[in-house]
Amino acid sequence: MTCSNALRGGISLVSSYLKETLDFMFPKSCSICGRLADAGDRFSQYEDFSLALSGNSSGLQVCGKCLSSFAPCEHDKRWFLCLSDPYDGDPFPGLALYLPLAYEGTVKRAMPAVKFGKKAYLARFFGCLLGSFMKCDSVHADLIVPVPLSAQRLKERGFNQAAEMAKPASAILGIPYAGDVLYRNRNTHRQTELKGTLDRIANVTGAFGVSEEWDLTGLTVIVVDDVVTTGFTLHEAAVALYEAGAEKVLCAAFAGNRQANND
Ligand SMILES: [Zn+2]
Q: What is the 49 CA–ligand 1 centroid distance (Å)?
């Protein structure tokens, strides 16, 4: 062994002891529930992925209990019609939605932390899970795009959670990501603030456009959002993509309220 190899080995050993000591003195808490992060090796693969993807540590710790609550529903129960309440005259009545998780329990508690706690790293973790589930289900496309935020909301939040999810999903699936395909024509109200179906349709109708920089002719495009309720937002984004020439559009969301109705 050369001197430099011996030195490197010694430094590695010391840093390993140091890490163990620091972990013992300052145990890490789960980024979602705050309990002791005990997932250990089960979570280390994600850290490796984050480093490979961005060159940075994820800044994330997830305990075993939270991790196990992100188990997806069965393979044959992850596809839905995009609209929960289909209507006559819909130009794309067969629009499909990929939705692996129910919006309940830990998922429901974690989502406000992404949006309102400005935890973009949690959104990236969820995107990683979404991409993994889609890869298991052999979902193919030419392009992945996020549902865009309005300029005003993007300024308030500092990031688009749908984009933060779509990026790692793109890397896992090996499908190119493009964040500048869709844009918002105008500000919309939060769909959750509106009760009636007609109000929700009116709120998003014509809300999206496709950049003239993009020619989508013949492409299959996946459009990603974080949470889906009625599906009107994703549906309207898909309409804009079809109008710009896409051959096929698939919608995908990390979580939603449909699973109970998919028996
Ligand atoms: Zn936890």
A: 20
Ligand 1 centroid to 32 CA: how many Å?
Answer: 5
Neighbouring-strand partners of residue 253: 225
Distance in Å, CA 112 to ligand 1 centroid: 15
**Considering its fold, how many domains does the chain have in total?**
2
> Measured in angstroms, how far is the CA atom of residue 101 from the centroid of ligand 1?
17
Do 34 and 143 lie in a common domain?
no
53 alpha carbon – ligand 1 mean position (Å): 24
Task: Supply the range of the domain harboring residue 202.
Answer: 72-261
pTM for this predicted structure: 0.84
How many whole angstroms from 163 Cα to the centroid of ligand 1? Answer: 24
- CA of residue 26 to ligand 1 center, whole Å: 17
If asked whether residues 26 and 127 sit together in one domain, one would say no
**Could you tell me the CATH number of the domain that includes residue 209?**
3.40.50.2020
Q: What is the DSSP string of 200-263?
A: HHHHHTT-EEE-TT---TT-EEEEEEEEESSSHHHHHHHHHHHHTT-SEEEEEEEEES-GGG--
Alpha-carbon distance values, 10 to 3, 15, 95 (Å)? 10, 9, 59
| Structure letter (DSSP) for residue 73 | P
Per-residue pLDDT of the chain (263 residues; tens, 9 = 90+): 555 566 565 555 555 555 555 455 556 788 888 888 776 666 777 777 787 877 777 878 888 888 889 999 998 899 999 999 888 889 999 999 999 999 999 999 998 888 888 888 899 999 999 999 999 999 999 999 999 998 888 998 899 999 999 999 999 999 999 999 999 987 777 777 777 777 777 788 888 999 999 999 999 999 999 999 999 999 999 999 999 999 999 999 999 988 654 43
